[in-house]
Structures are given as structure tokens and as C-alpha cells.
Design the sequence.
């Protein structure tokens, strides 16, 4: 059979597309995989060809990162802060989003636009004012209690994380609650359920899928965040990304590379695992929220 | 208790905690940025002294600030153009062509977006390392030693190296955004166009681009806001503004002045300028790109 000219350009076009796709995929996979390989290399291996396969599984890198560089502590702090922040966020945001999207009352419009304006406030701008505010409050607390409470405090960091995530979360949950028909509430009301009972037993359970998206997004946000953690935790209780920054600075100065890459693996492994499991929901959820910090 | 009263109580209990947190940790700090920018505060004294717009006058002649301004604008332009072109290209391919393993590519392309900026800084430090970094060693394997550079050590190159990392980080995110709006374009449009003999390129510029235009405009605003923010986080973690301040960007300089240097008033004045600049730029871009929305 004779091949027409058209199908030949088609083949070339297809070839070009696949080359482009594979090039981008390689440029993402290779650096990430390289870090994983580097995390099990011995220090001497870093002076040769960077593309060499690790000679063995040098697990000491991880042991050193956990024991000497305190990554274990940082990991614990990160876990505590992330879980606390997610809990606070859900407890505060769910009722607020429900009420703001399904009740109209005096000031409800104003509060709704107030939340939308909050979407544009960026953590990077307000990190220092928040630090100064906590410093101020701490001075007052110290005169009363004799110790400082708010800086270097994991709960405080979690509370502030939750607060900064509120606008986006309320916005996302509201847009879901708005789509629900009001029949459910009417039925619950006829059954004699009060407002609280209706919310907890009828409306919130239906928001399940949205809640998972909210948790997923904010987990990534809180787990990866470092500028607030760096600013508000100058002393102790530092979180994982800040610990990694310290580790990177220290190990680079000491030309001890293995533990540094081990630290990077410790930071990114939880997010990667979570992403692989839930990637479909994440990219779907993004099209609902469509916003980024 | 009357029905009305219990309704108000319910509303109050549900909304009040969110409002209090928002006001305490979002609104007041934002107002503080603007208020503090009018004060001379910090350095060695802890006194706040009202100086009006003096901080802004000082900024005008601060060459370090001007340089961070130039760097930021350069980054916004480069990152926006490259990310947009690459992301739209791959979004069009993955949503319109029958690709084997398209789901695999989509999943892989999104990975950089879930990594912490600190990890990305670490990855790119390894890529850009002058002696045994990945980039230079690839050039060595290809016998292209002339292309080897001190990617993070050369004052003129470093800002482009930062841009490279930012684009790498952003492609997947914007690709997924474009894909989601392309998915809602009816397939019949493309069928009709290809019956008429329109080429793929023609279909792309004639159908796809106009129909996702609104989505593109939204992402242009995102490019501005997120590049300003992420360039700060990346520069802080990767280069520390160096070498010799040549990779300093807007918010990095602000943070440096306000937190590291403790000149709070001056730092906040920088914050105000950046804030106003980013809003003005977003508004201008939004105005220029305004087209009649095509309904379909």
C-alpha cells in the first residue's frame, strides 16, 4: 500500500510529541530519583561521576540524619503541627463554610467578600508582622507568668497555619455546599432536628469528598511550609523543612553530602506516597479550587 | 428559646471562630504592614518614630532595592512566558491527542508541585553544582565543556538558573489547569474544523486558545503573584540572595531588611511597594487581555 504524504507528516508529528513528552518526564523523574540514589551513597562516591550507581545501601546516612541532625525531632514536630493545624482548620472552617454558603443574614455578604479578599493575602508579606505581634504578646505574658509562651510554640504555629488557610478552605467548601439542594435541610427540620443536629448529621457527612480534597491540599501546604516556621520558631521545636535547611547548610559546609540527601528524602517521601495514592483526587480538586499559595 | 434566636446563635457560633482567626492573623498583620511602613523602627532602638513617607523616599535611592526590583520583573516575565508556552503545549497534547500512557505523563508532570520549596532548592543545588553537578556533567558527557557554567556562582547567570527551577516547578500545575478547561470544549468543534481542512496549529489558535482565554487570563494573575512569592522562598533556600546580592528578589530583600536586619519599618515599606506593584501589574495585565467571552 502506498503511503500518502499526509500520514508521513502525521508520523513525524507523533514522534515529535512523544519526544517532547518523554523529555519533560525525564527532566522531572531523573533529578528526583537521583536524590533517592544519592541518599544511599557513601561520601567518597560524591567526588566521582555523579551518574554512578550507588555501591551499596549506605543506610548510615539516614541514621546520621535522624540522630546527629535531629531529623527525628523535626519529623515529630512537623507531624504534630500538621495534624493540629488540619484539625483546627476543619473544626473552624466547616461550620463557617456551611453557614456562609447556605444562610443569609445581616453581614453575610460582607463576610463572604471579606473571605475572598483573604485569598489574596500572602503569608510572605505578613510573616514578620505576625512575629512582632507574638513577640509583643510574649512580653506581656512574661510579666505575668514569667515565661514566654507564644514563640517556638507548636500549637501557635498550627493555629496560624490554620488561620492562613481559612480563606481558601472556606471558599472551596462553600462552593461545594452551594450545590446541595435545600431538600435535605427541610426534611431534617420537619423531623424536628435543630440547626446543629442538621449540620452535623446531615450536611457535613455529605461534604466527605470535598473534605478529603481540603485535607490533601492543606497537608501539602502545612508539611512543606517553611517561611512562617522559620520566622516564628527561632529557637526550638523547628519543623522538618527548617531542619532540612539547617542540615543542608551544615553538611555542605562539612562536605558531608549523604545525610543531606537523606534529609531531603525524609521530607519528600510522605508527600510523594500520599500523592501517588491520591493523585486523581488532587488534580481533580485543583480544578475546583484553582488557587495556589 | 425562639426559632429566630436559636438561628442567630447557630450562625454566631459557626462564623465567629473563623472571623476571629482571620482578623487576628490575617487582617491585623496586613494593616500592620501598612502602618509600620510609615515608622522608623528597629535597628538598635526599639522606639517607633513616625516619619511619614520617609522610608519610601529612602527606597527610591536604594540601589539594592532597585536591583531586587529588576530581578523580580525579569523573573516574572521569563517564568510567565516559558511556563505558559510549555504548559499550554503539553496540555493541548495530553487532552487532544490519543497518547499512550497519558495518565502516566500527567501524574509525573505534577510531581514538582507537591515538593517543598526547600527540597526543590536542594535538587537544583545538586543540578547546578559547578564541579560534579548534573547539568555540567551532562555537558561533559556530550563534550560540550564550553557550555559548563557556575550556574549559581556567576552573577549574570544566577537569576536565569533561579528562573529555570521556578519553571520546572510550575509547569505541571498550570498544565493541569489548562487541561481542565480544554476538556470542556466540545469535540464536535474540532471535528468540524478538521472536515474543513484546518491544520492542527490552526485548530489550536482558532478554537482552543480563544475558548480557554478566560482561564489563561486567570493564570496570568497567578503567574505574577506566585512568581513574586515562590522566587523569594526559592532564593532564600537556594542562593541566600547571592553571589553578592545578585539574585535578590522583592520579598527576599523585604525579609532581609525586616527580619534579619531588624529594620522593621523600612522592610514593611518594601512590602507595601511590592504589594501595590503586584496588584497594579495584575490589574494592567487583566485590562490588556480583556476580550469578549466566547460562549459555547
Sequence:
Amino acid at each position: 500500500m502506498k503511503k500518502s504524504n499526509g500520514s508521513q507528516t502525521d508520523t513525524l508529528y507523533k514522534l515529535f510529541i512523544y519526544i517532547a513528552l518523554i523529555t519533560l518526564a525525564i527532566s522531572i523523574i531523573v533529578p528526583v530519583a537521583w536524590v533517592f540514589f544519592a541518599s544511599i551513597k557513601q561520601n567518597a562516591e560524591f567526588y566521582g561521576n555523579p551518574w554512578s550507581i550507588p555501591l551499596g545501601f549506605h543506610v548510615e546516612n539516614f541514621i546520621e540524619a535522624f540522630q546527629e541532625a535531629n531529623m527525628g525531632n523535626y519529623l515529630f514536630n512537623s507531624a504534630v503541627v500538621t495534624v493540629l493545624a488540619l484539625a483546627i482548620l476543619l473544626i473552624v472552617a466547616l461550620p463557617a463554610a456551611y453557614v456562609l454558603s447556605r444562610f443569609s443574614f445581616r453581614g453575610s455578604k460582607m463576610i463572604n467578600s471579606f473571605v475572598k479578599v483573604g485569598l489574596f493575602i500572602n503569608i510572605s508579606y505578613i510573616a514578620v508582622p505576625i512575629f512582632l505581634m507574638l513577640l509583643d504578646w510574649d512580653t506581656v505574658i512574661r510579666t505575668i507568668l514569667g515565661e514566654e509562651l507564644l514563640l517556638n510554640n507548636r500549637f501557635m504555629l498550627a493555629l496560624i497555619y490554620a488561620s492562613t488557610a481559612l480563606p481558601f478552605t472556606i471558599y472551596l467548601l462553600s462552593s461545594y455546599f452551594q450545590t446541595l439542594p435545600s431538600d435535605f435541610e427541610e426534611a431534617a427540620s420537619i423531623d424536628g432536628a435543630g440547626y446543629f443536629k442538621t449540620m452535623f448529621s446531615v450536611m457535613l457527612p455529605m461534604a466527605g469528598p470535598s473534605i478529603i480534597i481540603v485535607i490533601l491540599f492543606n497537608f501539602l501546604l502545612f508539611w512543606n511550609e517553611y517561611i512562617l516556621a522559620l520566622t516564628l520558631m527561632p529557637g526550638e521545636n523547628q519543623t522538618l523543612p527548617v531542619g532540612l535547611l539547617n542540615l543542608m547548610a551544615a553538611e555542605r559546609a562539612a562536605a558531608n553530602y549523604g545525610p543531606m540527601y537523606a534529609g531531603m528524602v525524609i521530607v519528600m517521601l510522605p508527600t510523594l506516597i500520599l500523592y501517588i495514592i491520591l493523585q486523581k483526587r488532587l488534580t481533580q480538586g485543583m480544578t475546583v479550587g484553582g488557587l495556589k499559595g | 428559646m425562639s426559632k429566630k434566636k436559636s438561628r442567630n446563635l447557630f450562625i454566631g457560633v459557626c462564623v465567629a471562630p473563623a472571623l476571629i482567626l482571620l482578623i487576628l492573623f490575617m487582617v491585623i498583620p496586613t494593616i500592620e504592614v501598612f502602618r509600620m511602613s510609615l515608622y522608623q523602627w528597629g535597628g538598635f532602638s526599639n522606639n517607633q518614630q513616625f516619619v511619614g513617607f520617609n522610608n519610601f523616599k529612602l527606597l527610591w535611592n536604594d540601589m539594592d532595592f532597585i536591583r531586587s526590583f529588576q530581578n523580580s520583573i525579569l523573573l516574572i516575565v521569563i517564568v510567565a512566558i516559558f511556563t505558559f508556552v510549555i504548559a499550554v503545549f503539553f496540555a493541548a497534547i495530553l487532552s487532544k491527542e490519543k497518547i499512550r500512557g497519558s495518565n502516566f505523563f500527567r501524574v509525573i508532570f505534577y510531581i514538582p508541585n507537591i515538593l517543598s520549596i526547600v527540597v526543590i532548592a536542594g535538587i537544583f543545588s545538586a543540578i547546578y553544582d559547578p564541579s560534579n553537578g548534573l547539568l555540567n556533567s551532562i555537558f561533559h558527557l556530550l563534550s560540550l565543556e564550553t557550555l559548563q557554567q557556575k550556574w549559581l556562582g556567576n552573577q549574570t547567570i544566577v537569576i536565569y538558573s533561579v528562573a529555570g527551577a521556578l519553571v520546572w516547578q510550575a509547569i505541571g500545575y498550570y498544565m493541569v489547569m489548562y487541561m481542565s478547561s480544554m476538556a470542556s470544549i466540545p469535540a464536535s468543534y474540532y471535528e468540524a474544523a478538521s472536515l474543513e481542512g484546518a491544520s492542527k496549529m490552526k485548530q489550536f489558535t482558532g478554537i482552543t486558545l480563544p475558548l480557554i482565554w478566560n482561564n489563561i487570563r486567570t493564570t496570568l494573575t497567578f503567574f505574577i503573584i506566585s512568581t513574586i512569592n515562590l522566587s523569594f522562598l526559592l532564593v532564600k533556600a537556594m542562593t541566600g540572595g547571592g553571589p553578592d546580592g545578585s539574585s535578590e528578589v522583592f520579598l527576599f530583600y523585604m525579609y532581609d531588611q525586616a527580619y534579619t536586619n531588624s529594620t522593621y519599618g523600612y522592610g514593611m515599606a518594601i512590602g507595601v511597594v511590592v504589594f501595590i506593584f503586584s496588584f497594579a501589574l495584575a490589574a494592567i495585565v487583566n485590562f490588556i487581555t480583556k476580550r469578549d467571552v466566547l460562549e459555547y
Summary: Residues 289-293 of chain A have pLDDT under 50 and may be disordered. Residues 62-289 of chain A form a domain with the MetI-like fold fold (CATH 1.10.3720.10).
